[in-house]
Amino acid sequence: MSVLTIKARELTKEGFAPYGSAVCIPTDGNPDRPTDRFNFWPKLCLYRCDSGVFQIGVSTFFKRPFRTVNMERHFKTEEFMTPLTGPIVIVFCPNKIVDGADTPDYEKMEAFLITEKQAVVVEKGVWHWTPMPLEPEVSIICSFAEDTQWNDLDVQALPPGEVVQVIL
Fold it and tell me: Which residue has the higher pLDDT, 131 or 43?
């Protein structure tokens, strides 16, 4: 077995740009609509799907080793994820062509630590895996095109014997 160990990075807009958009609470003090009751930044990010109909769901993840041997992607939708009850780590990697077939380029995998004050929008076609919680149980909001979990899910295993491990 070969283990590739990667260190989780803090989520930044610049660091996450190859995979999509990072959404963070603004700290610039310039909301589009400041009032005495609230500050409003209405368009921190946009996301799209081919059908135009999104679903919003909640997933609860249970603490497990920070390892993966699989990756997934979606062709017809971007995916929005934000943790509600604790921080998470998510791994991402680009695509590569091997013998004429798409495969996750796991040797270029990156991991990001995402807090309850942050979110990500994963671009179409970007390889990623399910969030890994830092606490015993963490729930997230996940939104993508309606029925993506049934109609637009490409899961691939890493090569036999290959494991990616994340450290904090």
Answer: 131
1-26+44-164 maps to which CATH number? 2.60.120.480
Nearest alpha-carbon partner for 64 in 153, 165, 162:
165
3-state secondary structure of 13: helix
Q: Which helix (H) or strand (E) holds 20?
A: strand 20-24
Short-list 41, 164, 30, CA closest to 108: 164
H/E segment holding residue 111:
strand 110-114
| Whole-angstrom distance, CA of residue 121 vs CA of residue 48 | 10
Given a contact cutoff of 8 angstroms between Cβ atoms, the answer to whether 165 and 159 are in contact is no
pTM over 0.90: yes
The pairing of beta strand 2-10 with beta strand 20-24:
unpaired
Q: Residue 51 is encoded by which pair of tokens?
A: 């059908």
Burial of 133 per CB tally in 10 Å (0-12, 13-18, 19+):
buried
- CA angle (116, 119, 122) in 5-degree steps: 150
Neighbouring CB atoms inside 10 A of 162's CB total 15
Q: CA 88 to CA 70: how far, in whole Å?
A: 17
